[in-house]
Amino acid sequence: MAGLSPQVTNIIIILGMMQVSKRIPFEDPNVLNLVRALYIASNLIIAAIYLYVQVQINKKKDLTTLKYVEPAPMGSSEEGKLVTTTVHAYDSQQIKNSFRSQLMGIAMMSFMHLYMKYTNPLLIQSIIPLKGALESNLVKIHLFGQPASGDLKRPFKQPAGLMSGLQSGPAQSDKKAVEAAERAGRGGVKDE
Question: Measured by CB atoms within 10 angstroms of the end CB, which terminus of the chain is less buried, N or C?
Fold first, then answer.
């Protein structure tokens, strides 16, 4: 599965786990509690990974200036906004977004499981978010020690997804786009 995209492997995992979950007796309270424990453990591992990455970001405190043109909102006739920040601030914002995404997933799963009494998604949501956390760019850089070049160059490219065609383009960090935005006077807000 090394050559497959993350979306394809997610679909394979989901389809496989749906078949496995059909054979699991969720009516048995012991089995249900084990699956709940697996889900909680998975989220604790993700939180520990993100906390470790946050500590590494703060320890490195890379104050290298990062300039890029943030794309305009979809459907807007405006042009992109110039963003001037540091690598530390950019990474901190990205890890906060990752935490927020994890908490939204927990909230949705809690609603589905506790209120609507769905049990099958617990198993799938024990694996997919953990896989996503381990594949994230910040984890690759700060946990696995990969260099921040190529696909890991900041600003990170948004992964292609099912809705990527509806979103605005990626952030542009090439010199030509940044200089054009500076000349046009778009944005120029420095995040600290």
Answer: C
The alpha helices in 5-119, defined as continuous H runs, are 6-22, 29-60, 87-110
Tens of pLDDT, residue by residue over 50-78, are: 999 999 999 999 999 988 888 877 777 77
H or E, element range at 186: none
Distance (Å, whole) CA 42 – CA 33: 14
Spatial contact of 88 and 98, defined as CB atoms under 8 Å apart:
no
pLDDT band at residue 101 under the 50/70/90 scheme:
very high
Both tokens of 175, joined, read: 């010199």
CB 58 within 8 A of CB 45: no
Helices 87-110 and 29-60 pack at an angle, to 10 degrees, of: 170
Sign of the alpha-carbon torsion through 84, 87, 93, 94: positive
Which pLDDT score, from 0 to 100, does residue 67 have? 86
Residue 65 pairs in a beta bridge with: 86
